[in-house]
User: Fold this.
Amino acid sequence: MPAQQKKLLFCTAGVLSLACALGTAAAIGTQLWVRGSILCTTGALLVNASGPELHKFIGDIQYGLFSGQRVRQCGLGGRPFQFSFFPDLLRIIPASIHVSVILFCAVLVVFALVGAGFFMFNAFGSPYETLHGPVGLYLWSFISCSCGCLIMILFSSEVKIHHLSEKIANFKEGTFTFKTHSEQFANSFWTILVCSLVHFLNALLIRFAGFEFPFSKPKDSGTITGAVDLMY
Assistant:
C-alpha cells in the first residue's frame, strides 16, 4: 500500500481512538448510564390502583457511575431525590463490581489515548521499536476493546443480575417498597459499546494498511532452501 494511504489510515485510526477516549471520559461523569421507572408497590396496593391510576405511583430514575436521581411517586406527586454512590450507596450495591467498572473505564481512556498517540506516530514518523510498530498498535487496540467489553459485561450484570435499580429505589425507604417498572441503558452505556467497536475497527485498519497480524508465523523458507541445496 502506498505511504500516503497508510498515513491516511493511521490518521483515521488515531482520530477515532482520541474521540473514543474523550467520549469515554465524558461518559464517566454523566448520569446517563441507566434510565427507567419505578413503581411504588406499597401505595398501589393500598388503593388497589390499576389502569390509568397506576401512573400516579410510577416515578423515574436515572443514574451513572457516581451519582443519580430518582423521583418517587406514591400518589401525592413527585418527590425528587439526589443520591451519590460514594459513600451513600456503598453498603447496598455490589461495590467490587462497581469499582471495577470505574477502573476499567479509566484504563480504557488511558489506552485509547496511548493508542491514538502511537497511531499518529506511525502516520508521521518511522517506527523504531516493536511497541511503536504494528504489534504495539494491535496491542493497544486489543486492550481498549477488551476493557470496553468488560465494562459492558460488568455493568450489565450489576444492573440486571444484582437489581441495582431496585436497590437504589429502596434506599432509605422504610415504609414504601419500590419495584422496577422499566429500565433501559442510556447514552453513556452505548458510548462504551461504540468505542469497543471502533477499537476493533482500528485493528482492521492496521491489517488493511498491509501489516500482518502479530504472532503470525512467516512462511518457512527452510524447506525451499533445503530443496535448492539438494540440487547442487
